[in-house]
Write a structure and sequence with these properties.
The complex is a heterodimer of chains A (316) and B (504). Chain A is of the alpha/beta class and 316 residues long. Helices cover 39% and strands 29% of the residues of chain A. In chain A, strand 9 and strand 10 form a beta hairpin. In chain A, helix 3 (93-103) packs across helix 4 (108-121), helix 3 packs parallel to helix 5 (137-149) and helix 5 runs parallel beside helix 6. In chain B, strands 2-1-3-4 form a four-stranded mixed β-sheet, with helices on both faces. Chain B has helices at 2-17, 19-40, 59-69, 81-89, 120-190, 202-212, 215-279, 285-289, 305-335, 338-343, 349-378, 387-411, 415-431, 444-450, 454-467, 472-502, and strands at 48-54, 73-77, 95-99, 112-115. The chains are: A alpha/beta (316), B mainly alpha (504). Chains A and B meet through helix 2 and helix 3 of A and helix 1 and helix 10 of B.
């Protein structure tokens, strides 16, 4: 049971099947990450959650009630930040936030009180009178979030919040999400950036080929897929073909940034073999590291076609 | 209500903070009325180029050409009729006038005008104006000719009156002469000149003288007898001449009688002619030339084109601004990044629609106030006397077009398609109204359909209110029709919005 539940939800746009029999529960108080490659239907799920799209089949529950019966309640209790900066560029920061406060039906005094808190939360106090169009990208994203938070929602949905942001701005947004989590708001995030999800989410669902292929607590998922380890090695002149040819116990390998990455369940033994080969072939060792799998690897191992796109080569 | 106000406030902030939008919304209509005022604040046609051609220009033709040149027409003589017609086709001339060879009043003749019918409105004005000029010249000539005839008639009447007296004198004298002839004739008839020798008792005297045998007496007797015989011969001759005189007098009497009769007939003819001339009641040449004068008096006091087109202009501005602005705002809101965020707030879609309507209604009201205010200041002082009807009429008309715009914005998904459709719809409504050509020029079926055109109905209503200062009872049917329209369009908008929402 969660604050949101999708039961056997299918969504078609004319002949285009976007979601197929989705079953998903989003627990209240969690930071829930919805993972999937671009265009896999993450935003469609979010829009189904808020009733913007109607399901072709199945039903969406909010607070254990069908969405059509709780639509008004939902709209009062939800905040939504889209992929794009959804505010009026010609209005100032304050005006935008006040505008959404009024649309959420807040009293003037409540808006003013919340405004101060929200501006502090999103760290936009200094630019409160600035026209939104002149804000930096990170500030705009934070303003967008502030507009979704003015009514202190029970649930806030963030659709690709770190998309198109540089590392510094991404860090700012992730920091903000953590702060939102701290005030007890349920956060639903979609992203194809697995490292971002890994940093803030406690639960995730992976959407692939129109279906939810895995869902659960992040730690459990990582543990489930923690058998494989990665050996990252860089040599000079870099005859990686000879190295690969002479080792046995690996599952997959790929070359990235002049480094050889080998996935194996027996990392210690393989590493020993590699060092031996290097010594015999006269290669000069420049870099070596053994890493546990990230969420990205979990995702990659679950979505085989993505692996292929990334250039993974399976053992012959 | 608070949410609605917030939405309206937001709409205005967005419009006003976009400088170009603000300028266009506020200064646009003002600029338009100034331009239209400068362009149409006249009742004449200026700068009309007339090509003229004649194989031989008579003084009359030259006079007509001169007349045209005097009134802001620019005439140009062309070498051939074909070149003149080609000039109209190529837009060098507005009209081509072909004068007959050696045009004279005595011979008459047709002046043929070639016009480009594709420039419908211009042609109406030009042909009317040129016809007026030619007609004026023709009328002047007719006036001169008629005046000559009338003067001659007056002279004849005077002469007849003068000579009638003489004839009466002649008649009297003739009658007197005839009476004298009759008297002479009677006297002559009474005169007995039939004498015979035997009527004189000469035999007795002769016997007595014979018996006396007085020769001298006999000689004297014989001389007397001869004298008597001579006298009898003279009397016989006189009698013969009397007969001849009597005959001649009879002829003279007949002639005098005939003359008398002729004089009587002449007098009768003179009397009839005088009577006929007197019976001509109108002797003024001007009135004879143009016995029935037609004068077109406008039912309004206005004099310039701008006055007449002002109601149409007002509706046109309201319609295009309403259709384009409302539908554009609707589409922009729908396609904006904020639309979804607005959607998930507890504010109903009706509030957004109403805010769009009210925002644009305020803008239209502002523009209309500028237009009506400027018109009242410059040329329509009396517009304020109808303000109690004008305001509800304008509100009703604006609402119809605003909801039409909202409906268009709800149907279409891109601004381009919406703009094209809004403009097309606007032009269809303008074409099937009396704005370009009178609706009466359309085919009966189209005319009947066009009479339901909201633009046409609105135009008629504003004409009634602004131009004729009509009372409510005279325009109530227009109000009713437009109110029904508004209700219909609102219902249609609701349906369209529901359908477009279902499509998501």
């Amino acid at each position: 049971m969660g604050i949101f539940e999708l039961k056997g939800v299918t969504k078609r746009f004319k002949d285009n099947l976007v979601l197929d029999n989705i079953n998903l529960a989003i627990p209240e108080g969690s930071v829930f990450g919805l993972l999937g490659i671009n265009g896999c239907g993450k935003t469609t799920i979010l829009k189904l959650l808020v009733g913007f799209y109607k399901t072709t089949k199945g039903e969406v529950l909010y607070d254990n009630k069908k969405l059509n019966k709780t639509q008004d309640k939902l709209r009062e209790e939800i905040g939504f930040t889209t992929q794009d900066s959804a505010f009026y560029p010609k209005l100032t920061v304050e005006e935008n936030i006040r505008y959404f406060g009024a649309l959420y039906g807040l009293k003037k005094q409540t808006i003013e009180n919340n405004l101060e808190r929200i501006l502090k939360l999103v760290e936009l106090e200094d630019v409160r009178s600035k026209t939104a169009e002149y804000l930096s990208g990170g500030m705009q994203r934070r303003l967008d979030m502030a507009c979704s938070l003015i009514h202190v929602p029970r649930v806030v949905i963030l659709d690709e919040p770190t998309e198109d942001l540089d590392p510094v701005l991404r860090k700012e947004i992730l920091h903000l999400i953590r702060k939102i989590k701290e005030i007890g708001t349920t956060v639903i995030i979609t992203s194809h950036r697995l490292d971002d999800i890994e940093q803030v989410c406690d639960r995730v669902a992976i959407l692939h080929n129109k279906k939810i292929i895995r869902a659960g607590a992040l730690n459990q998922l990582k543990k489930q897929y923690s058998e494989d380890e990665e050996i990252h090695i860089q040599t000079f002149p870099g005859d990686y073909k000879t190295i690969i040819k002479n080792i046995d116990s690996y599952d997959e390998y790929y070359i990235e940034n002049n480094k050889l990455v080998i996935k194996t369940k027996k990392a210690e033994r393989v590493l020993h073999e590699i060092l031996h080969i290097i010594e015999n072939t006269g290669e000069k060792l420049l870099y070596v590291d053994v890493q546990r799998p990230t969420l990205e690897e979990v995702f990659q191992s679950l979505t085989k076609d993505v692996n292929a796109q990334r250039g993974f080569l399976r053992k012959q | 209500m608070k949410r609605l106000l917030t939405l309206i406030k937001k709409n205005f902030k967005l419009i006003l903070r976009s400088k170009s939008s603000a300028i266009m919304i506020i200064l646009g209509p003002l600029l338009l009325i100034i331009l239209m005022g400068a362009a149409f604040n006249t009742a004449s046609v200026y700068g009309i180029r007339v090509g003229v051609h004649s194989e031989e220009y008579s003084p009359l033709a030259e006079a007509i050409i001169y007349e045209l040149n005097q009134d802001d027409y620019s005439t140009q003589k062309v070498d051939s009729e074909q070149a003149c017609i080609s000039g109209v086709k190529n837009g060098i001339f507005h009209v081509c006038a072909i004068f007959p060879k050696n045009l004279k009043v005595t011979q008459g003749g047709n002046i043929v005008f070639y016009v480009d019918n594709s420039k419908t409105n211009l042609i109406y004005l030009v042909t009317e104006s040129i016809s007026t000029h030619i007609g004026k010249k023709s009328q002047d000539l007719s006036l001169q000719l008629t005046k000559g005839i009338v003067d001659t008639l007056e002279y004849i009447e005077e002469e007849i009156t003068d000579k009638e007296l003489l004839l009466n004198q002649l008649k009297t004298q003739a009658e007197e002469g005839e009476a004298t002839i009759t008297l002479i004739s009677n006297d002559l008839t009474d005169m007995n000149l039939l004498h015979e020798k035997s009527d004189i008792p000469l035999g007795t005297l002769q016997s007595q003288l014979g018996s006396s045998n007085d020769s001298s007496a006999m000689n004297s007797y014989n001389a007397v007898e001869r004298e008597i015989e001579s006298m009898l011969e003279d009397i016989s001759l006189a009698n013969s001449k009397k007969s001849k005189i009597t005959d001649r007098l009879s002829i003279l009497s007949q002639n005098t009688e005939t003359n008398n009769l002729a004089i009587t007939q002449m007098l009768y003819s003179f009397k009839t002619i005088k009577k006929d001339i007197s019976a001509v009641k109108e002797t003024g040449a001007g009135k004879i030339v143009n016995p029935i004068k037609s004068e077109i008096k406008p039912i309004t006091t206005e004099k310039t084109h701008l006055n007449f087109i002002f109601p149409t202009l007002l509706i046109m501005i309201m319609m295009f601004v309403s259709l384009l602005l409302t539908s554009t705002l609707e589409i922009r809101e729908k396609t904006s990044k904020v639309y979804f965020k607005n959607f998930i707030t507890p504010t109903s879609e009706t509030s957004f629609t109403l805010s769009n309507y009210i925002t644009n209604l305020i803008i239209i009201s502002l523009q209309t106030t500028i237009l009506v205010g400027a018109s009242a200041f410059f040329f329509y002082k009396e517009i304020f006397s109808t303000i109690h009807l004008l305001i509800p009429a304008l509100l009703l008309i604006a609402s119809i077009f605003l909801f039409m715009g909202i409906m268009l914005g709800s149907i279409f998904r891109t601004e381009e398609t919406n703009t094209i459709t809004a403009i097309s719809l606007g032009f269809i409504m303008v074409f099937f109204s009396s704005a370009i050509l009178p609706i009466e020029t359309l085919s009966p079926v189209i005319k009947n359909i066009a009479s339901f055109n909201p633009f046409y109905i609105s135009e008629s209503l504003l004409n009634q209110i602004i131009l004729f200062q009509s009372q409510l009872k005279n325009v109530s049917s227009y109000f009713l029709t437009l109110s029904l329209y508004l209700a219909g369009i609102i219902i249609a908008t609701i349906i369209v919005k529901k359908i477009s929402k279902r499509r998501q």
